[in-house]
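REQUEST FORM: STRUCTURE PREDICTION
Request ID: SP-0412
Submitted by: Lab K.M.
Chain count: 1
Length (residues): 124
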Amino acid sequence: QVQLVESGGGLVQAGGSLRLSCAASGRTLSSCSMGWFRQGPGKEREFVAAISWLGGNTDYADSVKGRFTISRDNDKNSLYLQMNSLKPEDTAVYYCAENRPTLVPITTTSYDHWGQGTQVTVSS
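STATUS: Completed
RESULT:
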């Protein structure tokens, strides 16, 4: 059974940085497509970033392009999201997700497995 556990969330001031991690068990992430999503208060879950199988292709929501970077470490079986220049509107619960391998990043919520999420709060 695949399990995904996010960590690295917290409270940060606007302009600051955080690095989220997603540790996986039950599946080798190098053979998966992965993504990050977020859900703010009173909002629907939205796409943030995705990386395809083999990490060759990435995609980002317009709202985070140039500020967030998705990456993976196959040796550690982990996925990361480096978040820089954080804004109050980035406040949300952030989720990582896993899916069978695809050649292009998956930007919809049609992933097979999800983590429980980690809270990110950006103060102004």
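NOTES: The chain has a mean pLDDT of 94.
Reviewed by: T.R.
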